Structures are given as structure tokens and as C-alpha cells.
Amino acid sequence: MALMQVNFFSTSLMRNVTYHIILPNDLPPDMLQGNEHNNREMKTLYLLHGYSGSTLDWMLGSLAQEVAGKYNLAIVMPSGENSFYLDAKGTGRAYGRYVGAEIVEYTRRVFGLSTKREDTLIGGLSMGGFGAIHTGLKYYETFGTIIGLSSALIVNSIKNKEEGFRNEIADYDYYVSVFGDLSNLENNENNPEYLIKQLLEEGKEIPSIYMACGTEDFLIEENREFHNFLTNHNVAVTYKESPGIHNWDFWNAYLEPSIKWALEDNK
Amino acid sequence: MALMQVNFFSTSLMRNVTYHIILPNDLPPDMLQGNEHNNREMKTLYLLHGYSGSTLDWMLGSLAQEVAGKYNLAIVMPSGENSFYLDAKGTGRAYGRYVGAEIVEYTRRVFGLSTKREDTLIGGLSMGGFGAIHTGLKYYETFGTIIGLSSALIVNSIKNKEEGFRNEIADYDYYVSVFGDLSNLENNENNPEYLIKQLLEEGKEIPSIYMACGTEDFLIEENREFHNFLTNHNVAVTYKESPGIHNWDFWNAYLEPSIKWALEDNK
Amino acid sequence: MALMQVNFFSTSLMRNVTYHIILPNDLPPDMLQGNEHNNREMKTLYLLHGYSGSTLDWMLGSLAQEVAGKYNLAIVMPSGENSFYLDAKGTGRAYGRYVGAEIVEYTRRVFGLSTKREDTLIGGLSMGGFGAIHTGLKYYETFGTIIGLSSALIVNSIKNKEEGFRNEIADYDYYVSVFGDLSNLENNENNPEYLIKQLLEEGKEIPSIYMACGTEDFLIEENREFHNFLTNHNVAVTYKESPGIHNWDFWNAYLEPSIKWALEDNK
Amino acid sequence: MALMQVNFFSTSLMRNVTYHIILPNDLPPDMLQGNEHNNREMKTLYLLHGYSGSTLDWMLGSLAQEVAGKYNLAIVMPSGENSFYLDAKGTGRAYGRYVGAEIVEYTRRVFGLSTKREDTLIGGLSMGGFGAIHTGLKYYETFGTIIGLSSALIVNSIKNKEEGFRNEIADYDYYVSVFGDLSNLENNENNPEYLIKQLLEEGKEIPSIYMACGTEDFLIEENREFHNFLTNHNVAVTYKESPGIHNWDFWNAYLEPSIKWALEDNK
């Protein structure tokens, strides 16, 4: 199992940025025997951190390395800063393109990862759950599976907010700088529901979606709402709820099951 | 000589960020003997990278470690992303406060660095030269010395630009997101000239300033202009020009001389 | 919560080495309120990896960061390479001194950690469990608590082995290079039982000891034997067994309970 | 230009170890135009640090990144700890195999580097110069070029030394643990002169050799001696001397010229 810290020049962000990758490329032979996940090209999970997090979060907060080894799965952990993994206006702020296209192309090329859609997963927690859903839908040809844990599906809570607004997380100027004009958010590419509607209209293949949220999470209503939206539009989704709040206990409880679902149950 | 990579939660940026620090705290005794810089509390240089750079730049591009050892100088290398080390609008975008206040307070507290103004230097190259000058002036009570190499003193080139503007570096939206309203830039805290005028009016002590720029650098006129502004306002400045362009050859030629000037000649 | 990767010159190892430290020095105020562990100087756990491991192991394999935050506990993770944390013969091979003295002195000085014995813990898994027990006993004035998980208490299995010996882990030359003359191991400072007998003879205060081992672990007999040795010598020890093998599932099950025991129950 | 810090399991060392690699795989197009070194598979330099150094040394002490970019050359910087890059006795101490075979195979496989002998260079300073010469000769089928700067060619100074010996660097036990039986060092694979004689006898192709040493270096006689040995045996060598001692000023003066020689002049 190799862990790499990579600093490279991102053309989406117009600067040198750092990501981490866990690469189960050197497992000792006795761990590989009888491991059904070993007889194939390297599948990859792009795993996104939450608001205020960093590229280190999943390594420190979860047992991602164990999952990588067990499922012979490369795990790439980019930093989305506090961008919601969206393309903001202005040079070097294309976080969506960074995560959805550039880092995929880069890691596939440098590390020889599988280029198949069904081998390419995107997941995340909180802001990273939003990022996984949004980026996975926008780059639906790249990602076969989306995993959103406690996803910060906040578009409906911030749309049409006006100057002076602020909530516990951030202020109006922040939301505008990240999401763009809030009065124009509904029918906009930054809105996952809008992307779903577009994909349905165009008859595109929507990635498999797995969602989980704790019933005491402050984002539970947002998750239920998006779940309902998906089922109302006949989009397949595996949806889980269980007691829990917005913390690592919950995300750790769902990290491996969601991967297992993606790589085994949902095949 | 210790090199540390530190990931911590910044309240200015509202997320976990990484900086590096070179700490000459464990020099072998024979390197300390006869080194006049050793008999004092640890002085510190906050050293800023340029546009598109990262916290790794000075370590990889220069011989900063050698300078740290020779002058018994802690060197802190934060990332300013592409922010020009300014406080932008919106939660978590206070890069100026991050570099000028938070990281100073944090590193002094955690590493026991000298808290004296005369022991606290800020320097940088290109965008980081702008950052050193701007942040050094804004936090004039913290920093005793400013070192600006090939500084991107671009306020006069971008002020009053309008939508649709773009130059080789970035577009209008980027400049607005970083500098704020461009039509209001002149008499604004983001303008180093404005800060100088304020400090003079209020009779504050301006940090010692060292500037250097290559005569073939695309920023030479901006540097000459700011140099003239300082001398016209009777602000002391040590100003150097020599043949050179905007590259590491030039910055390496001036890193040690500027430190030597600050710690020895200008005492 | 800060995570630092530190590279510094170790006089014990005569070269630059890297360790990691988790420093809960910047918890947001709301996480500090009502946390009884916050109203005190920073306690520290020196946490040792196993054979074939590295300074990254505890970060990737466990939820050490969570424990650090919950108990306001600095966690220092040095690399012992494959040394069993012993002082081997020859320049630069003093791994015991490195972990038991040098890194303690260094981290206390650089990070201002508590210098009290009762605030200083040493723990580890497998080879690191051996290291925690051995180093904790050898530097009994420094460490108030020892935590050994699935400890590789192998002295009795390798003593008096002769050239040509090898087991599943390593060969004779390795064991000699790490433990020294195997025919002289019993009454030797590298033998934890010998250290215990010495401390008892000299009437020294033995650190509090916590041991845990899985009942299916290949080291269970060695752990039971050492446990018996301690109780036979009237040395206090908290000893736990439960179903489990030599893996992270077991170590994760005991990491927090052992810390809680040390910081709360055993006060 | 990417910089990667890689932690992986080495079978030669039987543990997780860290190396760094500079990979000029993402140069912006305008830096690639007209760069003759760009139109080919990625050549690689394995670059070895000196005694007491680490994988970080060349990054911090030299401008290796600039050279990597200029010559489109991947630079791999392993840690040899204080092993002289030799295979010592005992499990997990095969540093020579680590650097000469395992890391070459690993980096070629993971990063798709050129597998051609003429594209594979090994270089180093001091102990790393010895390592480059020794490992380059032992793995003569892998490396086309050897660069030894201020090489610690100390075999003749330590051979036949007896217990109680020590010099300014280390003691007898250290030298035995690294080089093996000192009374048997002359006609032994750890002796570069012995390897040369063997290669000549067997009619093998010896890699191109570049040596440089400062005339005031404490190792100048050892370098002259090996140079004479090579010329006396009609082995081609490019040998440079100039005023200088055993420090980064000297190594920085020769890093790029030696690369240029290898990639341009000596083609």
C-alpha cells in the first residue's frame, strides 16, 4: 500500500496544489491471494472532504487505507478548499473541473488507473457529498458511481438569499463567490436537481447514486428532499438513514458499506 | 535544522491549511560556535511565494535552508494561493489577516519565536513581494522589515479596469474577486500607496523596506514607480536593480543579500 | 487540531529523520467548552508503530486524531524502523535513546508540552508495544504510563538462538543486529523482565502498565507470560484479553479505552 | 512539475519507507517548446544523499527541481539512511538492492519512466557518491551513467581496521554493521574497485562515470586514488577537480554540469 502526497500545477486552479493518493499497488502476495478485487485494473475512488477540511481529512478521520487494501481500490483525496467543488467565476477558480476532469485525467495518466466509467467512483461527506453528487452528475460520462454521505445539498436553502444573509457556516459574500448569483441558482448548472433534469431530458445515463444521512444530522431534510426529488423523477438511488449526527462516527459507519455496495452489490 | 510541514485550522481561511517552517533549532554545536546570529532569540522571516506558487516554492526553488542556518533565522512559508495576500470579501477569504496576524501569532506561540518587531521580517517574490509590502505595511506594528523581490505592484495597472478586461495572468472576475471593486482601488486599504499615506499622516513607524527588481523584468516599471513614490514621500527604502528577468536566478541572487542587509547592515 | 510532519537531525540516529505529531492546540472554542481535559498543560502520548511500519501507521490505521482531540492529548509518532526501539551497537543506532529521551526532550522544548511524568505516556502495538514497555521501563522517570497492545514480547522466544535460526519475521543476523548477542539476552537491559527486576531491587517507581492482546493473536502466550511475570512480582498491571487477532480491528478497539484508562480511570 | 512524497512497503527493507520524486510531467506548453529534452521518454536520475542526510536533502540543499525541468528529467530521491547504500547482513537491510533494483523497478512501473539503460542515471554526494558508484557498478545493466560528487570512497581507509577503531564519523561497530567484516573488505562486493575488476574480467559494459571533488575536500585523496585506479585499468572516467570543500556550494556547482555532460556531451 503506497501513500503519496502529490504537489502539481493545476491548470483549473492556475497554481500548484496538493492531493493525496492511496495506491494499493504493492500489497504483499499473501494479501492478494483469494482477493477477488485483485484480478482487475485499478478502480479509483475520488473522495472529497467537507467544508473547512483538507486533503488530509479522510486519512486522519477514517480508515480509508483499510478499505483501499480490501477492495484493491485507489483512493484520490483532492482538496476542494471551501469551494463546494464548483467552478466559480474568474481565472483559477474552476474547482469542479479540477475534481471532475483534470485530476481524473492526471491520476489516470500518471498512475495508470482504469479509465472505465464503471471503475471510477466519486464520493464525499458534507460539502464533499454535495461535490460528489454535483461533480458526478456534471461529469456523468466519467463517473459510474456517486456516494454522498450527509451531503450538503444546500442549494434550496441559499437560493434567492439577499445581501446581509448569513448562517452558521458563512456569509452572503461567501455564498455568492462560491455559487454565483443566488437569485439565479435554481436553473443553473450549480444545482444538482437542474443537472438531473438535463440528463433526463437528454436521455443520458445517470451514475449509480448512494446516499446516507443521520436522522439527527442538521442536513437530514436536505437529504430527504433530494432523495424524494430523485425518486419522483424515477432516478435510481440507494438511500440509507440511521441514527447519527454530522460526524466521523456516521461517515465511518457508511464508508465501507457504500464501497461494498458499489463494487459488489450494485455490479 | 528542522523542516516542518504543518496542517492546522486557520480561522482567517475557515479551513485546514498547510504551511512549512524551517527551524534552525538543532544545529550541531560546531556550527553554532562563532556564529553571532546564534546568541539571541529566534528571528523569523515570513516568506511568500508568487502567483501560481505554493508553500513548497521557496524550498524547491531557492537555498532558503542555507540562509536559515547561516543567520539562525526561522523561515515560515505560508500558502497565499492566488490571493495577493489580501482580505477578500466573504467568509474564509482573509488571506491578509492569515499571513499578517494569524500565522504570526500561531508560529510565535507554538514555536516560541521572538515577538519583537525588529526580529520579524516579511518577504516575498512577485505576488509575494506585493504581499510582503502590503501586509508589512498593514501590520506595521508586527513587522520591522519588508523585502520585496520583483514585486507585483499591479494596483495602478488594474485600477478602474472594466468587465471584459483580461491580461496574460488573469481575467477581470479574478481581479475583482481578489482586489474588490477595481474602480475603488486607489484610495483603498488594498493599495500599498494608500497605506503609506495613512501611516505618514498618523505618524506611524514604517517598516524598513528593501526592494529589488531585474531591469528586464516585466514588472520593472511598477517597481520603479513604487520606489519613486516612496522617495517622493521621504520614506526610506533600499532599492536595487540589476540585469535579470522574473525568475529564480534573480530571486536567488537577492535572497541572502536582502537578509544580510536586514540582519546586519540595517541594524 | 494541527498535524505536523517534522524532519530534524537526531543525535541518537546521527541523521535526519521524520516524525509526525498531532497537536490539539487550536480546537475551536465550542469544542473546548466543558471538556475537562482542556484545563491543563498538554499531556503527550508517544505512540509507536509495529514491525514493518512507519511514522504514518497510526494516522492511517487508527482514529488517533479523534482521540487526540477528545482528550486534548498531543500524540507523537516517531519511526523506530525495524529496531524494536532498542539501542543497537554502533554509531547512530540508539533507537531506544531516540524514543525514550531525545524525541521527548525535543518535542517538549519545541512545542511546550508538559514535562510532568504523569502527563507523559508511551504506547504502541506489536513491536511498538514491546518498545513502549521496554522504553517506558528504561526511562521510568520520564513516563508515567505504558500501554502495550499485542506487544511483541519476544525475548524469551529468541534468546539463545543460534546462527541459522530464522522465523517468519526475520533471520538470525537481524535479531543479533537488533538485540545484540542472543546468548546474553536474559540478563540484559534489552529484556523488559530484567528491567523490572532492576527497578524493584532499586525501589524505583514503575510506570502504570496497561496491556491488551487478542486471544487469537500469535503473540498471546508471550503477553500472558509477561502478565504473569508482572503479577508474580507484584507489579500492578491492567491486563485485557478479548477475541481478536493481530490487526487494526483489535488495536482500534483498545486505543481509546487504554487512553481513557490512563487519563481518567487510573488517575 | 510535480513533487511527490511516496511512502510504500519496500521488500528490501521490509518496512514502509519514504522517498521523493520530482516529475516534470506537467510543464506548461510554453516551457516545452524548443526544449530538445522533451521529445523523448522520461529519463531518470536516482539521486542519493550523504551520511546523516535524508530524502529531503537534495530538494532543500540544491536546485534539483530546476535541473529536472530544464532537462525533462525525473529525479528520484530515496533515503539510504546511514547505510552507504550497501546490503548489510540480516533481514530488511538490503539498501543496495533497494536503490539499485527495487526502487528502479517500482518507479518505472508506477510512473512509466523509460526502462532504457542509457536513460537511467545514478548520482549522489559523499556517502551518496559512494552509493552511486557502488550501486551503479553492481547494477551495471540498469544504469548507463554514474555521477559521484565528493564521493566517500572510504573502503581503503577502513579495511582491516580492528575493534576499538573510530574516526570522526563513526565507530568500529557501525562500520562492521554497514560494510561487514572489515578484514575481508578488499576482495568483496562492497568494494567498488573489486566490482570494476570483476566487470573487466567478465567483459561487461561499465557505465559512464563522472567524478568531481573539491581540492580542499577531506576526501580528495580517496577520489584521486579511485580516479587513478580507473585510469590504470583503462576505464573511461570524466574527472573534475576545482577549489572547494565538502559542502553544498561545491555540489551545486557540479549538479547541472554533470547532468548536462550525461545527457548532452557524453551522448
Task: Describe the protein in words.
4 copies of one chain form a homotetramer. With 267 residues, chain A is an alpha/beta fold. In chain A, 37% of the residues lie in helices and 19% in strands. The first copy, chain A, has 10 helices and 8 strands. The first copy, chain A, has helices spanning 29-32, 57-61, 64-70, 95-111, 127-138, 155-158, 172-179, 192-201, 220-232, 248-265, and strands at 2-10, 15-23, 43-48, 73-77, 120-125, 145-149, 208-214, 238-242. In chain A, strands 1-2-4-3-5-6-7-8 form an 8-stranded mixed beta sheet, with helices on both faces. In chain A, helix 5 links the parallel strand 5 (120-125) and strand 6. The longest helix of chain A has 18 residues, at 248-265. Chain A is globular, with a radius of gyration of 18 Å. Chain A starts with a strand and ends with a helix. The model of chain A has no long low-confidence stretch (mean pLDDT 94). The interface between A and B is medium-sized, with 32 and 32 residues.
Task: Please outline the helices and strands.
The structure is a homotetramer of 267-residue chains.
Chain A (H helix, E strand, L loop, with lengths): L1 E9 L4 E9 L5 H4 L10 E6 L8 H5 L2 H7 L2 E5 L17 H17 L8 E6 L1 H12 L6 E5 L5 H4 L13 H8 L12 H10 L6 E7 L5 H13 L5 E5 L5 H18 L2
Helix pairs in contact in A: 4-5, 5-8
Q: Main traits of this protein?
A:
homotetramer, about 270 residues, alpha/beta, eight-stranded mixed sheet, 8 strands, globular
